[in-house]
Specification:
This is DNA-binding MarR family transcriptional regulator. This protein is mainly α. The protein contains four helices and three strands, in the order H-E-H-H-E-E-H. A three-stranded antiparallel β-sheet has the order 1-3-2. Helix 1 crosses helix 2, helix 1 packs across helix 4 and helix 2 crosses helix 3.
Length: about 120
């Protein structure tokens, strides 16, 4: 498994959507879960598969009408790496938010306190 070279917000959304599913998910489900367009999601899925984070297979449900679905699921290493990446990004966001809140605190007045 190779690391993701460029982690974007859409990539994080796709990782989060895949982690939130129980088992394999098809592309349209990921698109709906992320709110991203197909032209954004499918290239990310292809890239993740090429890096070894996920694997895909064709749905073999012959009783279901319509075109076959391509199912995507994490490899064991990919699921762990995705959780680690999302946790690290959340920790960074939390630290940034706490820092921004601290910067907005009113500064103490230089006036002397009198009773």
């Amino acid at each position: 498994m190779e690391p993701i070279q460029r982690v974007t917000a859409p990539t994080l959304d796709v990782l989060e959507a895949l982690l939130s599913t129980d088992g394999a998910a098809w592309g349209l489900l990921v698109i709906k879960a992320t709110g991203r367009k197909a032209g954004t999601v499918y290239p990310i899925l292809e890239r993740l598969e090429g890096l070894g984070w996920i694997r895909s297979s064709w749905d073999d449900d012959a009783d279901r009408p319509g075109p076959r679905r391509r199912l995507y699921e994490f490899t064991a290493e990919g699921a762990e790496a995705a959780r680690d990446l999302l946790d690290a990004r959340q920790a960074t966001a939390d630290a940034s938010e706490a820092s921004a809140r601290g910067a907005r605190r009113p500064r103490p007045s230089a006036r002397p306190v009198t009773s």
